[in-house]
Amino acid sequence: MRITMVGSGYVGLVSGACLADFGHVVSCIDTDVKKVEALKAGKMPIFEPGLEELVAKNVRQQRLSFSTDLASAVEGAGAVFIAVGTPSRRGDGHADLSFVYEAARAIAAGLNGFTVIVTKSTVPVGTGDEVERIIREVRPDADISVVSNPEFLREGAAIGDFKRPDRIVLGVEDKRAEVVMTEIYRPLFLNHAPFVFTSRRTSELTKYAANAFLATKITFINEIADLCEQVGANVQDVARGIGLDQRIGSKFLHAGPGYGGSCFPKDTSALIKTAQDYGSPIRIVEMVAAVNDQRKRAMARKVLTACGGSVRGKTIAILGLTFKPNTDDMRDSPAISIITALQDAGAKINVFDPEGMDQARLVLNDLTFFYDPYSCCDKADALVIVTEWDAFRALDLDRLKELLNAPIMVDLRNIYDPEEMARQNFTYSDVGRGK
Ligand code: UGA
């Protein structure tokens, strides 16, 4: 099938490349001329393991192409996916849908024959209705069906998540669209991936409910971690002890510095707003968002305590800046709040991150950048691990002790063993491992 992907960001690019790999002919569109030129030259705008190779293979086999020309790409396409950004709207926390509606108008202009319009962007309940209204306003003659098909992939594991999903959620309002969507996802269907066919509004809400639930799970274990520190208990054992109960599940129970990224903060905020607008507030998610915001900055206090109560005039080495490993994404990363709080407390900041330093330059000031963990720690007064990159899991502790002014490590991802660190004479603090 010929498919058009409107928006070549994270979700659009990964989905486009994977759908091409399923055998469809996919045209990925973006309004950013530079991005499209770079993609044509084989350069990825984001860091995602395996993506460059997957794109190159499908371009070579002529199933994947990039263009700025939306109208031509829409003509003759069986399905047009909308995968543009839905950032938080400045000021009120609602999702900003201007890119989605702009895309709908542009798509309408090129329509020709029956076309399924699929919203893959994370969009609030009712957006599909509005997309349909806009298209019918621009092209009263259009033969379309608007479907909601939210994406559940994680950054850093995006290709695997797309190709081996836990489920595919499809909000379809008519049979013709159902046939087209089943055709698009046929390889997953044959692999027995579960399909959830539902109404468009239910599908839109399902995406927010999923992210809000995961954010709640993380925040729950983070608060249990705080309690563990006070009562001398171990949060990792608590997580294992509860996670083996299949009704709870072991995933998303890693305590840490608070969740970040391009999805959880913005999606919890948008869900909170929608629920308030409809007079049905989701107080538990309101609390989760507030607790998580406070937590990120509060992590700086751990560093202050480890440094004897003050970091004024001290140099702190930060290892890991991105909101999680295997991405260059800095959006809402806990590192931003932690570093800003440490700078406010008078610290100088050294940083190293394997992929995130270019993005970090755009959101943080007065950092000293290093290109390996050891030079980052040279003459620093303490070391803080903010992101659990694999490269930080087996650091040469003897070498670190020689380089650091004092052997102080604050491990916000619990990637070192407290007993081993004590044996190595490190002043070591972590998250929720009292005992
Ligand atoms: C998240 C969801 O996991 C995806 O299913 C969803 O498709 C995506 O948002 C989206 O809506 O686009 P992502 O933001 O890429 O994916 O990353 P996650 O792996 O979910 O991590 C989010 C944050 O939670 C990170 O800061 C991570 O460090 C933190 N986290 C995650 C924890 O602190 N503890 C955990 O146990 C798990």
Mean pLDDT: 96
CATH architecture tag of the largest domain: 3-Layer(aba) Sandwich
Computed CA radius of gyration, to the nearest angstrom: 23 Å
Beta-strand share of residues = 5-15%
* Largest pleated sheet: 6 strands, parallel
Low-confidence stretches: none
Number of separate structural domains:
2
CATH fold-level name of the largest domain: Rossmann fold
Shape designation: elongated
> What topology, given as strand order, has the largest sheet?
3-2-1-4-5-6
Instruction: Please count the helical segments.
Output: 18
Q: Compounds present?
A: uridine-5'-diphosphate-glucuronic acid
What's the β-strand tally? 14
User: What portion of residues is helical?
Assistant: 40-55%
Distance between the termini: 57 Å
Give a brief description.
With 435 residues, the chain is an alpha/beta fold.
Description:
Keywords: NAD, Oxidoreductase. NAD(+) binds at residues 30, 35, 86, 122, 155, 266, 331. The active site is at 263 (nucleophile). It holds the Pfam family UDPG_MGDP_dh_N. It is built from 18 helices and 14 strands. With 435 residues, the protein is α/β, with parallel strands linked by helices. The chain folds into two domains: 2-198, NAD(P)-binding Rossmann-like Domain (Rossmann fold, 3-Layer(aba) Sandwich), CATH 3.40.50.720; 243-429, NAD(P)-binding Rossmann-like Domain (Rossmann fold, 3-Layer(aba) Sandwich). The protein has a six-stranded parallel beta sheet, sandwiched between helices. Strands 11-10-9-12-13-14 form a six-stranded parallel beta sheet. Strand 1, helix 1 and strand 2 (25-29) form a beta-alpha-beta unit. The N and C termini lie far apart (57 Å). The model has no long low-confidence stretch (mean pLDDT 96). Bound molecules: uridine-5'-diphosphate-glucuronic acid (UGA). Uridine-5'-diphosphate-glucuronic acid (UGA) binds next to helix 10 and helix 12.
